[in-house]
Amino acid sequence: MIDSSLSSLGAKVVLAASSDENHPPENITDGNTSTFWMSTGMFPQEFIIRFAESTQISAVTVDSYNVKHLKIEKNTSPNASQFESVTEQEFKHTEGHLQSNTILLNGSNATHLRFIITSGYDHFVSVHRVSVQNVQT
User: Residue 4: which pLDDT band, with cuts at 50, 70 and 90?
Assistant: First the structure.
């Protein structure tokens, strides 16, 4: 199953390293690639998505712009602490259109996913949508 709107699963962005009132972190989970969260220009940048309950995820798709290197971590506790590394990925630079990268998580069980952008192709990056595949709660 692919759910383009994490907010329909009760998922929320509970932390973002930066925030712009015109491009808030909540835009990451609204399922709309026309809206986005924008960083404030320094790295690393991170955001944490909390699911309503423990969720099994086979893959995550990140639609973004100017992200160069991304780390994903998870935890299964009710609190957003003590994360374990899941994967790291280098994104290809795309000029003039969104990067869309599907990252396999192989059925990882998670209450929280932390996305850490360690570098970008520019000072500013944007994340337009995060969606999950094969969700089982």
Answer: very low
C-alpha 100/C-alpha 61 separation (Å) is 7
Which two tokens mark 9? 């699963």
Task: Please state, in angstroms and rounded to a whole number, the distance separating the CA atoms of residues 6 and 71.
Answer: 19
The answer to whether the peptide bond before residue 78 is cis (omega within 30 degrees of 0) is no
Using the 8-state DSSP alphabet, how is residue 135 labeled? Answer: -
Q: What is the pTM of this model?
A: 0.93
Span of 5-9, 14-18, 48-52, 123-127 with lowest mean pLDDT: 5-9
In angstroms, the CA 72 to CA 86 distance is 6
Burial of 104 per CB tally in 10 Å (0-12, 13-18, 19+): middle
Among residues 119, 30, 129, which one has the least CA distance to residue 66? 119
Residue 40 φ/ψ, nearest 5 degrees: -100, 10
Across the range 77-104, mean pLDDT stands at: 93
